[in-house]
């Protein structure tokens, strides 16, 4: 699991990013956010419910497009990307972990993890399955390869989701409340796996969380209030 090809400069840079939903009454979800996230950093985004944390994460993950401002990932200005380039770039450079695992119910753990590699189409199906098996084993899921999501525990499902996020060896992992649905033992396990990705494999992790135990291991915590960075924000 080596890093990206161009190993210099920040992993993510956003400048004056704003996301407004147009309508009779326009709603601003994210307002003039500028920040830089270094390679290998583990950053937690925190703040009150409804403050725009998920909206910001979607912009960083190129799942949504800012109304104003720009997002650079791995030194590339993503504002110039067309849809095909965006799809490719997301598959190659970004991995996602959500609160709910979003694994495909009809697929085995192994097939769920293979899927991003098959979509990208750069390796044979055989190589994709071999790498998926290796990732699952690394996260303590040896012997679970052929189980469907419904046959796994919440913590196991989230570890499959992390393996899937790593499938194409991305630069950045974006996680939205990755422990929001887990008990404390599984939460600490998922926290330590994500933390370890930055230490051992130089991945960059940006995680939205309410979980103080999760955030306690972050290199940096960014507070978001009313769609803006608020460095004074502290959890209760
Ligand atoms: N598609 C949408 N249409 C209208 N309002 C939205 C939409 N998406 C999010 N919001 C609102 O924008 C605000 C920020 O949402 P979100 O980013 O999900 O916050 P958080 O993740 O911090 O809880 C919330 O008030 C939410 O209700
Ligand atoms: Mg949210």
What form results from the Cα inertia axes? globular
Q: Tell me the β content.
A: 15-25%
What is the CATH topology descriptor?
A: Rossmann fold
Q: Which architecture does the CATH hierarchy give at level 2?
A: 3-Layer(aba) Sandwich
Q: What small ligands are held by the chains? A: adenosine-5'-diphosphate, magnesium ion
Structural write-up:
The protein is of the alpha/beta class and 236 residues long. It has one domain: 3-Layer(aba) Sandwich (Rossmann fold), CATH 3.40.50. The protein has seven helices and ten strands. The strands form two sheets. A six-stranded mixed β-sheet has the order 6-7-8-3-9-10, sandwiched between helices. β7, α6 and β8 form a beta-alpha-beta unit. α3 crosses α4, α3 packs parallel to α5 and α5 packs parallel to α6. It is globular, with a radius of gyration of 17 Å. Bound molecules: adenosine-5'-diphosphate and magnesium ion.
């Amino acid at each position: 699991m080596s890093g990206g090809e161009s190993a210099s400069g920040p992993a993510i840079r956003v400048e004056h990013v704003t996301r407004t939903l147009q309508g009779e009454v326009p709603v601003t979800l994210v307002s003039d956010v500028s920040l830089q996230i270094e390679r290998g950093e583990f950053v937690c985004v925190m703040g009150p419910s409804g403050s725009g944390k998920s909206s910001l994460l979607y912009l960083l993950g190129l799942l949504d497009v800012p109304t104003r401002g720009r997002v650079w990932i791995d030194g590339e200005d993503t504002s110039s990307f067309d849809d095909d380039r965006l799809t490719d770039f997301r598959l190659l450079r970004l991995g996602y972990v959500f609160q709910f695992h979003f694994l495909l119910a009809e697929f085995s753990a192994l097939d769920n993890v293979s899927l991003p590699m098959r979509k990208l189409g750069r390796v044979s199906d055989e190589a994709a399955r071999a790498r998926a098996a290796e990732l699952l084993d690394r996260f303590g899921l040896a012997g679970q390869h052929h189980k469907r999501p419904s046959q796994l525990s919440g913590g196991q499902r989230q570890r499959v989701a992390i393996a899937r996020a790593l499938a194409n060896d991305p630069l950045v992992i974006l996680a939205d409340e990755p422990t929001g649905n887990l008990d404390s033992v599984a939460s600490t396990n998922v926290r330590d796996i994500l933390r370890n990705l930055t230490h051992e494999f130089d991945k960059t992790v940006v995680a939205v969380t309410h979980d103080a135990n999760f955030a306690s291991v972050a290199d940096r915590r960014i507070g978001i209030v009313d769609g803006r960075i608020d460095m004074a924000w502290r959890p209760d």
